TrEMBL record, chain A:
It is a multi-pass membrane protein. InterPro entries: CPA3_antiporter_subunitB, MnhB, MrpA_C/MbhD. Keywords: Cell membrane, Membrane, Transmembrane, Transmembrane helix. It comes from the Bacteria. This is Multisubunit Na+/H+ antiporter MnhB subunit.
UniProtKB/TrEMBL annotation, chain B:
It comes from Xanthobacter agilis. It holds the Pfam family Proton_antipo_M. This is Formate hydrogenlyase subunit 3/multisubunit Na+/H+ antiporter MnhD subunit. Its main location: membrane. It is a multi-pass membrane protein. It is found in: Cell membrane; Membrane. Coiled coil: none annotated. Belongs to the CPA3 antiporters (TC 2.A.63) subunit D family. The keyword Flavoprotein does not apply.
Automatic annotation (TrEMBL), chain C:
It comes from the Bacteria. It comes from Xanthobacter agilis. Residues 125-384 form the NADH:quinone oxidoreductase/Mrp antiporter transmembrane domain. This is Formate hydrogenlyase subunit 3/multisubunit Na+/H+ antiporter MnhD subunit. It is found in: Cell membrane; Membrane.
From TrEMBL, chain D:
Belongs to the CPA3 antiporters (TC 2.A.63) subunit C family. The chain crosses the membrane at residues 6-25, 32-54, 66-86. Keywords: Cell membrane, Membrane, Transmembrane, Transmembrane helix. Residues 98-108 have a biased composition (Low complexity). It is found in: Cell membrane. It comes from the Bacteria. This is Multicomponent Na+:H+ antiporter subunit C. Residues 98-121 are annotated as: Disordered.
Amino acid sequence: MSLLLDAILALLVLAAAVRVAAGGDGFARVVAFMGVGLLLGLIWVRLAAVDVALTEVAVGSGITGLVLLQAAADAPLTREREVGLLYHLCAGMVGLVVFAALAVVVLLLPDPAPSLAPDVVRALPATDLGNPVTGVLLVFRALDTLLETMVLLVALIGVWSLSPDRHWRRAPAPLWPAPPSGALDFLARVLVPIGALVGIYMFWAGADVPGGAFQGGAVLAAMALMAMMAGLSPVPAIGGAGLRLAVLAGPFAFLGVGIAGWFLAGAFLDYPEGFEKTVIIAVEVAITVSIAVTLALLVLGPPMGRKA
Amino acid sequence: MSGAVLFASADALLVVAVILPLFAVPVLFLAPSRIAERATVVVLGLSLLVALAIAGGVGRSGAAAASFIGGWRPPLGVGLRADGFSAFMLVMTAAVLLATGLFAMTTPGRSRAGGERMPPAFWMLLASVFSALNLVFLAEDLFTLYVALELLTFAAVPLVCLEGKLAQVEAALRYLLFALFGSLLYLLGVVVIYGLYGTLDIILVAREATASPGFVLALALMTAGMMAKAALFPLHLWLPPAHSGAPPAASALLSAVVIKAPIFLLVRFWLDLAPSTLAVAVAPMLAGLGAAAIVVCSLVALAQPRLKLLIAYSTAAQIGYLFLMFPLAAASSPWSALAWTGGALHLASHAFSKAAMFMAAGLIAEALGHDRIAGLSGVGRVVPVSLFAFGLGGLSLMGLPPAGGFVAKVMLLSAAVHLGAWWIAAVILLGGLLAGGYVLKVVVLALQRPAEPLVAQPVAHWREWVALALALVAVGFGFVPLEPSHFLFIGRPASWAGMVP
Amino acid sequence: MAGLSASDLMLLAAVLVPLVLALAAIKPFVRRRVDVLLLVAPLPGLLAAVAVPLGQSVLVVPSPFRLTFALDLPGAVLLGGAALLWLAAGAYAVCYLRSDPARGAFSVWWLLTLAGSFAVFLVADVASFYLAYALVSFSAFGLATHDDTVAARRAGRVYLALTVFGEALLIAAFVMLAASVTEPNPLIRDAVAGLPASPWRGAILALLLVGFGMKMGLFPLHVWMPLAHAVAPVPGSAVLSGIVVKAGLIGLIRFLPAGTPWFDWGAGLLAAGLFTAFYGVAIGLTQRHPKRVLAYSTVSQMGVVAAVLGVGLKTGDATVPVLAAFYGFNHMLLKGAMFLTVGVAAACPRRRLVPVLVVAAVLGLSLAGLPFTGGALAKFAVKEPVGDGLAGLLLALSAVGTTVLMARYVLLLADVGAGATATGGSVAPGLRVPWAVLSAAAVGLPFALFTAVTGTSLALLFSLDTLIKGLWPVALGLGVAALIYQKPPKFVEVPAGDILVAAAPLARLYQHVRDGAVLLDTLLRRWSTAALALVLLALVLGYVMAGVAFPPHSAP
Amino acid sequence: MSAPVLFGLLGAALSAVGVYGLMVGRDALARILAFNLLGGGVFLVFGAVARRGAGAGFAADPVPQALVITGIVVAFSATALAVALLKRLAALRARPGAAPAKVAGAQAEGTKGRVQPGGDA
């Protein structure tokens, strides 16, 4: 029975994906894409990966969708020459071959499947964490996570670099220049505090149950954006020291803890014995703040020259 | 255990190499730009020292250095490892990037002649590129490599459009999208590998890997992804506009070192990861594409009306030599080591000469206000040092003595001759001829007497000398002995044996 | 490195001093002292040629580089001649370029070419030879194109294109040659010793002959020579035609295996050389400028040398290389002096022209081998191995041709002198003295060297038989010349570079290929093409691997 | 067929759709969307791998899950950067006097003869 449900879910995703790839109006495609993201969130739950599901919905569908929506109107200006029917056919055939090859590989995956789950089980007690995914993210593969925060930071620098140097103390343009309507204003006033609480809880709970810095940060970012859209809060200028410190806090607190690990625990990104959880939570606080701010700023785009 | 001692150990230096450049970013974020600029150059200099220390340690001990992040060993943890080849790449990258930093720096004591000050974003991106490259050269984990490659791409792409012109933004977007396409193909391969072996550590995977359908597909996807990022013909669509449109300092580092990261990984995949039967089967195909790159892109370079485009196409062509190396290096013959050394040497001498050429071209453009080749007549009188740097860099591309390109070419030729790969030898020679064509075309024009007196802006001599220094390093590689290098083979075949977490 | 003897130091100085001077010329105050630069630079080379005992060799940088300098007889002969010509032409150039604002740049090219030419005669290891050869070849470009005229630019382009091509052929040959030796950078001697046993000996020989033959101007690769030699400033032409072409000669001397008969290849080289010898004369006769006549004469003379070397290769006669070097030495000084004569004639007041023409005639007749001149010794030396057969006859006939060509040269020189606008008392001593000294040396010096080089007594030269053998071609040539030039000949001037016009289809082909590449590139740079190519590439890679990993016959 | 296999196949299909979209996409938005689809497919295959690796008390192998979270954030960064570039490009093309999109496109593709790549210096 559940397999039938799964199959229907899969078909829905596929249909939405084909709609996304089929072309046509930009907005419709983006909305279809956000639908794919939400459905994928469900699928991740079905795959017993709730942490991923939260991330997929918050970041992969939500914030990404927000970014993409802004591009929908501009897309026609980047259009290139038409490709012919023959090309479409070729591309379709190639796509089918890609599918076939991948399907064969998926079906031929070894059984029993190799897994690092036992390794994680063995190592997790040393970290004092309850959520194995958080354990992998912040302990066993902390380097990846550190780099990931750097990736966000570099992406932000890249986006800002599209504005000339002299605009670097100004604010990005508001997301939708229209005056805030009463309904949005009301919605925002109600939703923002609730959402913020949810975000903070998600990060806090992340140590032991599904959730964590990325999911929590994404929700917080969404709330901040909503507040700005509703006019509850101005779009900040990117030159402020506080904002910049908030952007830097996550990656560099993490980096600092990593270096401290050399002296206190004997290896880079190792945590001092007995204080693992405390330090990890501290790092997560910093990362959550940075992620929230960075995601919001990435959605807002480069500073446009308006002085805030 | 004393952290201070650990900090200076060769193993810890691997981590330092990755994180040190990142410390320039907060300084740039918070401090006034002039101070931040100096600070960044200091960080670049320190990073070069770190790279040299790693290379020194590897050379002295005769064994690879390794470091496990957080003390967690693979497969659960992530390991960094520097063998001879990695250390070689680290030093080369650090040297080129330091030179780039010096070139881009505001001339000490006065405002920069000609162009404006480089924006803080440039310096932040430069630092990020540095860190990402070091990670690519050191990481043994396929997923960490994915993140490192993305970090590299995101840092490199905005460098293309720092000036914000239409053509540059076009080029940057195209570069980004194609690189992302490649990254995801790579990631798909990584996912399949995890599904097969339950680990992402290259060394552990290599130990278990057999030519199963999954592994074959994974290798194919990863290879194609890296080729897209390396702009190997026929996937070079993004390279000429991106490398030619960027500001000179950015072009230099893009063409010299950024493009080498995916190539480095291809070498790792095919010589460390793949079973040799597969490597031998695929190598001729890689070499065929390399040959096509050399011939087609060199010819196209000859037709270019603008100097920076000419140099960019030359990069697209020179990448081909590194792929020509594969069948020679993959063959199990004593001559493979020579081909390998030749390939590495070509990679390094191309990095230095190409950086020098892009900088020289930038200075020429700055002096004349354009870089149309037809209008370069007599430019040698205006910026002689830059032209000399361009010529010396070109000497290496042409494979003439005493430049590094010559020694590399002789090594590759010798290996090709011994292994009976005549077509590879022929392509190497033809490539030299075509390179001679496009380099000499520019140099000869520049040496002529100008038709009308040239009106030229002054350029900072400081920067001309940086370009010349790079070109001289490229020439210096010509004094490497014509035999397989022992250093490059330190730590091969790769293994974690004897490495303490 | 410790314990360098005086001889070692002299060998090193011959190459290093001009290089250091060239480097020092970066500084403007050094560059302004053209006179010092040009006159000092060749002296160490001259000293080395005269004072260093033959067989001396010095390992400058030890293994694995093995940068080695060595002096052998052919090297010493050519080095000495080259040093003399560099000195005389240098002195001449100091005066000739006195009012040229770009003389500083010219002297830098001059010094680099000089260093390269000395190094070619001295280095004994393969890699350094290639370096020296590249140095002399590429630096000569600067001498040839100094005047920067339209013709000079074209000549420069052709020269560079062929030089780059020649370098590619030679590096291929050297790599294959070195393959037989375990050393990474073998001595030329050791590498060549392995040539007869090499599995690729045919390919190596072909590449060597074409590569070096191009530098010597063997037909049909001579096209650059008349272009380049004619457009350079007079002292530049003198060293280009006198010395730079000898890089090809020393290349053949060093790299052809001496003492091993290779009949087919030897016969081929002999034929190519003889054909070139006559071809150079034939085209040269149609030329209307004395410098171009001289350039074609160089083509012809290098054909003679190549023919002699061909005989040596054919028979395996190990004495031939030394004799060829001696012939080269003779040609070096004569041709240098004759080029300088052109400049002197142009600067000469009409009433003082006759002595100049007399000197020119003596030089020309010497080149043709008139008895009692230095040239006769060179002709005699090479006649010995060639013998009296058909090849010997053709060689003698080529001397007839040379005589006719030289007569043409003197007549054209008279025209140049007559058309000159020079006024004043006489030619500036700065031009006249080096020219006169060089001319005297060209005619006289072979006598001093002959016995040492050939081991034959000079007395043999004055036997009646020898005199007749030397005299009849010159006499016949003069007779023919008199017939032809009774009234001004109506030859259509063959454009310099003659068969270069035949290269036009080649150039068109190149254009098409290049345009095709551009078109292909434009197509490939479309997103749609490249994206499809990327995915296809992944699939093809997978397919190729699958073909190896799961061979069809093992499929269930 | 079990859920992991089904979703693994869906991942393969989604990847194929993404690849197709990347090939035929005419504008930058289409390509960015297709990139995200391909990414979603790749992650889903990874999710199937994780689910198959259930064991030792976990319903799925936690390592791939963590990697997918990282991957999603990286993909978002890529999208944000690409969209910023897209918008800047559109703004530049929309500017009066700028080359219209069609011409700029044609310039990138070339027509007949010796069309050169790149734009103005």
